[in-house]
Specification:
The protein is α+β, with helices and mostly antiparallel strands and 216 residues long. It has 8 helices and 6 strands. Helix 2 crosses helix 6 and helix 7 crosses helix 8.
Length: 216
Amino acid sequence: MSKGRGFFGFLKGLTREVQDEEVRQKDFALSRPSDDEEDEAIEAPSYDTNYEPDHGPSPSEITLDDDVVEYCTSMVSTILTAQGFAGDVKMGRVTRQRMIIDIESTDDLGRIIGRDGSHLEALQTLVRAIIHRKFSDLPKIILDAGAYRRRRRGALKAKAKEMGVKVLSTGKSIALEAMTSSERRMVHVLFEKDDKLQTLSKGNGRNRHVVIALRD
């Protein structure tokens, strides 16, 4: 990675419009607009973990124009290069709800993702702001690197199930690690039909997390 201001310094040097978009997207990802736990619990996860089908395209998939694909992938590649990262950028699955942009990298994958996905989230915010200014009618953009988001969601599900078993055996509530709003929703959905366990979101901002507890 190149020396200098670093990844977040690079983001902070952008225009006011992109900075405002960064704040808006981070607020959406790290907290909810209200304290209505029920809404959060029943909302479907905003990220499709099975976005690469094994047996051809699904009926919900759409095809983007070649110039749109070229712009999106080239723009992400340019940002990566500006930060001294190497990686191949490809367009993944595209539906009417979301479009996946994949980054494949052998040497820089860890730095592109960052601790707990922080760099990837910041990069996604920047990519959304730039692309949606040019193509405002595109679906929601999901930026992934080395299938990190899919792997993380799988790990979070496994951890949540493990902690659920522990809550049943000890009778004590357990707080999971801080998560984004879509990750919290995933955990809520995981336990929504469980007749013994319930989930609650606690904390604020970056510290917002899920607590698994016995039902009353």
